[in-house]
Amino acid sequence: MRTLLLIGFLAFVVQLNAQLGLSGSARFNDAPDWAYPASVAGQTNPLGNGWAVGVDYWIPLGQTRIDLLPELNFGRSEQTLDILGNPHEFAQNAFSLFLNTNFYVLDLEGDCDCPTFSKSGDFFQKGFFLQVSPGVSYFQHTIQTRESAAVDIEDEAFAFSIGAGAGLDIGLSDFLTLTPMAGFRYYFPSEWAGLEEIFLTAEPDPLFETESAVRQFWAGLRLGIRFDQR
Prior knowledge:
mainly beta; 3 helices
């Protein structure tokens, strides 16, 4: 999987004839079925909040203001929980492919070769967009204890997702665009098998599940770089 992602990244780089985007974001996660103990109010969750970075490639679609921006994304989330007096560190690495599609709903019929600083008109009308983003992710899960390396657990999983968001393109120059964005992503249920060994050994709970969906709110910035401007 990592090899495929690297090949995809190189394919982006060697075809730089339009716009490359670099992005960073904060992620706020909720995996309700991984909460432990499941039968007690005020549960703790091994999937903490985290961050992500991504690279995308801008593909305008036809004459309307609808743009496709396929993105390769890496995210990491971490959480430390005390289990029977022993701190455990839970981490998730996420390697993702997102098919971001931006709809410039206030300027769908516009002829703007946006976003650039020199284009005339209302920047909000031309720069505001709504985004729909299906995706697929490969997760690496690790659990480590600070007391004994023998308890370290690693496993992996795949999950499909669907996301929605909004953003505003702000042209800094003909070459650079800054885009603040925010949105929500729903990851369909996937399994974190190692949780069973840690949680159910510590305190059996018949309501606990090793499979959970993830609800994620995120906010971040994208820097777009135009290579075809003169």
